Amino acid sequence: xxxxxxxxxxxxxxxxxxxxxxxxxxxxxxxxxxxxxxxxxxxxxxxxxxxxxxxxxxxxxxxxxxxxxxxxxxxxxxxxxxxxxxxxxxxxxxxxxxxxxxxxxxxxxxxxxxxxxxxxxxxxxxxxxxxxxxxxxxxxxxxxxxxxxxxxxxxxxxxxxxxxxxxxxxxxxxxxxxxxxxxxxxxxxxxxxxxxxxxxxxxxxxxxxxxxxxxxxxxxxxxxxxxxxxxxxxxxxxxxxxxxxxxxxxxxxxxxxxxxxxxxxxxxxxxxxxxxxxxxxxxxxxxxxxxxxxxxxxxxxxxxxxxxxxxxxxxxxxxxxxxxxxxxxxxxxxxxxxxxxxxxxxxxxxxxxxxxxxxxxxxxxxxxxxxxxxxxxxxxxxxxxxxxxxxxxx
Length: 394
What we know:
Layout: H1 5-12, H2 18-24, H3 36-46, E1 51-57, E2 63-69, E3 74-79, H4 88-102, H5 107-115, E4 116-121, H6 126-131, H7 152-164, E5 168-174, E6 179-181, E7 190-193, H8 205-220, E8 229-231, H9 241-247, E9 252-257, H10 267-286, E10 303-305, E11 307-317, E12 320-333, E13 336-347, E14 353-359, E15 365-367, E16 381-384, E17 387-390
Parallel strand pairs: 3-4, 3-5, 5-9, 7-8, 11-14
Antiparallel strand pairs: 1-2, 2-4, 6-10, 7-9, 11-12, 12-13, 15-16, 16-17
Helix pairs in contact: 4-10, 5-10, 8-10
């Protein structure tokens, strides 16, 4: 165990209450579509509170903002929206900045700010954020470009890293609704990873530090997310940011914000990421990370792809009983993200879990327009024995 776990739990008790989170949540910005226009709103809110700079620009010339907070000797580099359509952790970063502004006298917050200097890049891929795509404007996955450094955004991240020489890196992402925490019917609401440092997935003291911090975060969040915290696969890929920095002996932690049941806007998950960030940073700030129990990291169940958004069980289709798996596709429309239901699989039996289930009980399944029920078609409404049902998220 960490030598300071009991002290930390006491210190964070009030901060982790619902009332305290609502006090620091940056409520002006919600939802899944987060772009530089939102970041400029954050800039205006915090321009007198933090050191804010623009270390570079995107392919299309959009500014990439950098925030600095704290005055301590421990240097932490964190970046979000490396993939433009992964915005939950960005919202949590806004909340983190707001807590630094509003409750800097709270013990855990003051400990972070006094002992750490944080460099935060809330949106590394502003072009991808604007288009709501994983890739940048050149259709390149920035998280596969940390060796070639062909793209201005990934080159900027490496330059910031080289200049800062951080003691820790936090790589902030979203994961899809398909992930379970292990083989059980438990959605992976949060997942963590300490990336591998080489092909052999060697474990040195630098990896042990990040593993120990992740184990501590999981403990801190256990009452909120019992069984819903997963461990991401650590297959080595030197082209990825986390693997690159871990290979350079910088303890690196990957955050993956996942699906809380019914929370497709990821506002509850946002809160969990905020709590995880506070837990992580406070543990880093104490400097006395005990590596003895780093193996507890491996007790976290590894992510598996065992969920669909919706499964209709035992529906009668063309005289046969079938299961129908539906997955919501995220589509940008008029500045908002719509969740469009599409049939993914039609099988005699689908051996997956579902965030929502409908037991058709062998009733006749039809589409509202009488079109053929087949894979890869949109199904906004279905008809079960003449009863019309709307297919929607939440």
